[in-house]
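Re: the multi-chain job from yesterday

Posting the exact lines I submitted so nobody has to dig through the queue logs.
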Amino acid sequence: AGALFSQALQGIDRRFNELFRRLFGGGEGRLMLTEGLSLWDAGVEVMARPPGKTPQHLGQLSGGEQSLTGIALLFAAMEVAGAPLAVLDEVDAALDEANLKRFAALAEECARTRQLIVMTHRRYTMERAQVLYGVTMSEPGLSQVVGVRLEDWT
Amino acid sequence: AGALFSQALQGIDRRFNELFRRLFGGGEGRLMLTEGLSLWDAGVEVMARPPGKTPQHLGQLSGGEQSLTGIALLFAAMEVAGAPLAVLDEVDAALDEANLKRFAALAEECARTRQLIVMTHRRYTMERAQVLYGVTMSEPGLSQVVGVRLEDWT
Amino acid sequence: MFLERLFLKNFKSFGGSHELRFAPGFTAVVGPNGSGKSNLLDALRWVLGDGSASRLRITRLGDLAFQGSASLARSTEAEVSLRLREISDGIEGGRGRSCTLGRRFSPEDGGSLFFLDGARVRLQDVDEAKRSWRLEGDRFAFIGQGEVAEVVQQRPRERRVHLESLF
Amino acid sequence: MFLERLFLKNFKSFGGSHELRFAPGFTAVVGPNGSGKSNLLDALRWVLGDGSASRLRITRLGDLAFQGSASLARSTEAEVSLRLREISDGIEGGRGRSCTLGRRFSPEDGGSLFFLDGARVRLQDVDEAKRSWRLEGDRFAFIGQGEVAEVVQQRPRERRVHLESLF
Ligand SMILES: Nc1ncnc2c1ncn2[C@@H]1O[C@H](COP(=O)(O)OP(=O)(O)OP(=O)(O)O)[C@@H](O)[C@H]1O
Ligand SMILES: Nc1ncnc2c1ncn2[C@@H]1O[C@H](COP(=O)(O)OP(=O)(O)OP(=O)(O)O)[C@@H](O)[C@H]1O
Ligand SMILES: [Mg+2]
Ligand SMILES: [Mg+2]
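And the result, C-alpha cells for all chains:
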C-alpha cells in the first residue's frame, strides 16, 4: 500500500501541476511525500505558487486561491485513482469570475470521464450541466425537486 | 462585568430577533444565557428558527442560513455594544440573491450609525457603498488600490 | 459506473417521496439557501454507509427523519435508495447491470437497516457491493460545503490519509 | 469615531506606499482573488495591536514584509499607519480631533515598534489610546474570511467570551 501510494503520488503530482497551471493561468503546484520515521508518519506536502508570485506557506494564499488549489488537487487525485464519481457542494463559492469560468470549463471536461454532481449558486457552473435540478421549498420546511430551464436562474 | 453582560444580553437578544426576522423574512432568533457552576461556565446559547421551519440544532441550518444568522447576531451585538466600526470580509459569500439583497440593505442602514468596511465579490453589496475601492495586482505579486466606477464591476 | 437514480422518502427536508435521475456526466443542483441541496449530499453519504453525525450534520439519528411542515406531518422514519448503473459497452445497445442500495431508519429498528436489490443485508455486504462497483472506502470524492480549502489547510499526515482513501 | 486613512508600506502584497481613505459610513473593497483585499484587513488588525499568527495568516513576522515582484524588490520591513478621526459635532464646521496609530516591523528591531502621532510608544500606550477612542479590546468587530458562521458554530462558553469582548 505504501509503494502503491508513492507511485500514485508521482502521478497525482504531475496532474496537480497541470491542473494548477490551467486553473491559475500559470504558476506551479507540486506534491511531495515527506518521509517519516515510519510509514504512519509519512505525509503529503503541497507547494502552490500562483503565477508571478513567490512560493509561500499555503496559509498565506487568499481564500479563492486556496479553493482553486484544493480543486486542482482533488481533481488530480480523482483522475489518478480512477474514482468514478465526485459530488462537490459549492466548491466555487469563493471564486471570482475569471477563476470561476476556468473551473466551470474544467468541470465540464472532467465530467466526460467521470460523473460529477455539483451543488452551486454560480451561473457559469450551472450553464455547463447536462442535467439541471432545481431544489426549492414547496412550502417552508418541505423540499421539492424540479427540472429547471436555465433562463429561470439567470 | 457579569451583571453588565447579562443586562446587555437581553438587549442583544431583542435586537437579534428583530434583525433575524428582517433578514429571513420571518421566523425567530433568540439568545439565552446558560447558567454555569460559576461565572466562567456561563455560556450564550442561540436558537435560530427560519420562517415556517421547526426549531433545530444550529448545525442543521444550511450554509447560507448559518451566514445570515451569524450576521444578525454580530450586527445586533455591535449595536448594543456601541461598537464604532466593523470590518466584514466576504460575509455574503454563501448568500443567495434574495438573502443578499436583504443583507445589503441592512448593511447600508447599519452604516448610517457606524463605520462599515466590507470586502465583497457581490454586486448588490458593492452597489450600496459610498466609497468603493478596487484592489488589483499592478503586476503579479504587487497589489494596488484604485478608485472604482461601479460599471466596471458589473 | 454512475449513479442513475436517487430516491428519498422523508429524509431531512424531503418530506414525502422524491426522485432524481442524474446525468452520467455533469449534473448541477441549484436553489435558494436552505432549500435542500446539501441535504441531497447527506442522503448520498448516508445510503452509501456513512454514519458520521458531524458529516451528516445531525446530533441524533432521529434528525434524519422529516420534521414536518404546514401540510405534511412529521415522520419518524427515513429512507434513501440509490441505483448504480454500469456504463454499458454499447455492443448490444442495452444498459449495463445495475444494483440498488437502500437504507432505512426507523426508531423501532434501533438503528438503520441496509438493503441490496430489495433484500435486507448487513453493512459488510454494502461494503462488499461498493468494492465490486469500485466505490469502496472513499473512492468517490465527496466535498462538503466549505470543505474545498480543507485539503490545503490539512497537516501533511492528514492529507496523506485523505488522498490514500481514494485508492 | 471612524477610520479616516490607512497607509501601508511594504505590508504583505502592498509593495511600496499605498493609501486608502474610508467613508465614515459604508466602504466596499472589491477585486479579483488574491489581489489583496484580505491583506487590508490583516493590516488593520496588525496596526491595532493584533499579533496572532493565525489571525494574520502568517508563520513568522517576516511574512508581513513585501516579498517582491518583477519590478519591485522585496523588502525586509513593513509599516502600517491608521488615522482615527472623531466625528465632529459640526458646530464650528471643523473636523474632530484625530490620532494616528503606527506600527513598523524591521528585523533589526527584533519585533515591531508602535507609534502614536509619530512618537514611539509601548503596546500599553496603544491599548490606552484605543480605550480613549472606544476601540479597546475587540470593540470593533473584525469578521475574517470564512468566519461569519463561526459565531453560530461556537460552543456557548466561547460565544459568551466572544460577545463580551465587544463590551
Ligand atoms: N429532519 C429534517 N426535517 C426537516 N427539515 C430539515 C431536517 N433536517 C434539516 N432540515 C432543514 O433542511 C434545510 C435545508 O438544508 P440544506 O443544508 O440542504 O440547504 P441548502 O440548499 O444546501 O442551502 P445553502 O445554499 O444555504 O447551502 C435547512 O433549513 C434545515 O433546517
Ligand atoms: N509578504 C507578502 N508579500 C507578497 N505577497 C504576499 C505576502 N503575503 C501574502 N501575499 C499574497 O497576497 C495575496 C493576496 O491575498 P489576499 O488574501 O489579500 O487576497 P484577496 O483579495 O482577499 O482574495 P480572495 O478574493 O481570494 O479572498 C496572496 O496571493 C498572497 O500570496
Ligand atoms: Mg448547502
Ligand atoms: Mg480574501
